[in-house]
Amino acid sequence: MSEHLRTALELAASQIPALPLRAGKVPFGNCRRCADNACGGRPNMKHAGPCACPGPCHGWAAATTDLDVIKSVPWHRAWLRASAVAYHPGGAGLTVVDLDNADATTWASKNLPATQTVPTTRGEHWLYLGRMQSANAVRPGVDIKSTMAYARWLGHGTGTITALPEVVRALAAKKPATARPAPQTLTVPAPAGGGECRHRTPTYLDRGIAMAEQRITEATSGVHSTVYRTFLAVLSTHGRCGCLTEAHVARLFTAAQTKGESPRHCTEAWTNARTRLGL
C-alpha cells in the first residue's frame, strides 16, 4: 500500500474527505465521460446528481470518506500516479486560511485568533472549526479554503483548533477594490417545441451552475477562453430543456465579469456557444 493511499484511508476514517493530487498539486482531470461536466454531477457525494463515475473526477468534489471507493481499482491507479494527498476542508467542517508567505503569516499573527497551524512550503495553514465560502486573494498572500475547495494534507499541525471567527468570514465578504459593471442579464428562451426538462431535481442544475462559477473563478490564464468553454458546457447540458433562468445566467456573467470580462464579451461568448449548439 502506498503512503498516499494509507494517508487517505486514515483521513477518511476520521471523516475527512480525501482525494489524490497529481503533479503540480492539482486534482486529476475528469474522465472522457465526465468532460465539461457532461454527466451533470459529482461522484461519491450525497445528492450528487446522476454521475456515478468510479474514478476521482470533478476536482475537489471527488473527495470522499468512503473507504471502499478510495481502495477501488480506478482510484488505485490514481494513487499510483499521485504526488500528494488533499482534502475537502468544508466537507470536514473546517476552514483553512492559506498564508502563502512570511508577510501573510505575520499579518495573521497580529490580526487573527490563534488556532491550529500547519507549516507549508512557503507559509502556514491556519485551521478553524466551521465552514464558509471559499475565496482567493482576500488580501496579499491570503486565500480561504473551505466549501468547494481542496487543501493539500500536510499533517495535523500544532496548537488547539478554535472556532471560525467573524474576522475571517469578513475577509471573504469584502467588496473588490475596483467595481465591475453590473452583470448583463439575458432572457433564455424555452427551446423550440417546448423541450421537457430531464433533470431529476433542482439540485442537479444548481450544482452544475455552482461548478461552472468555480471553473471561471479559478481560471489563472486564458480567462476569455475559459468563459466560452464553460458557457458551452452549461448550455450543452441545460440549454435545451428551458430550465435555465435569467438568475442562472446572471450568476455566470457575474463570475466572468469579476475575472475582468466585459458585458460585451460575456454576451458574445454566450451567443457563440448557443450558435455552436444550434440553440
Walk me through this protein's architecture.
Strands 4, 5, 6, 7, 8 and 10 form a six-stranded mixed sheet that branches. A four-stranded antiparallel sheet has the order 2-1-3-9. A hairpin with a 3-residue loop joins strand 1 and strand 2. It starts with a helix and ends with a helix. It is globular, with a radius of gyration of 20 Å. By secondary structure, it is an alpha+beta fold. Helix content is 37%, strand content 14%.
Mean of all residue-level pLDDT scores? 82
DSSP summary, beta strand count: 10
Helical fraction equals: 25-40%
**Which ranges are low-confidence, i.e. pLDDT below 50, for 5 or more consecutive residues?**
44-49, 176-181, 183-194
Give the count of helical stretches: 9
User: How far is it from the N-terminal to the C-terminal residue, by CA?
Assistant: 50 Å
Q: Give Rg in angstroms.
A: 20 Å
Largest sheet: 6 strands, mixed
Order of helices and strands: HEEHHEEHEEEEEEHHHHH
Structural class: alpha+beta
Roughly what fraction of the amino acids lie in strands? 5-15%
* 3D shape: globular
Q: Give the assembly state of these chains.
A: single chain
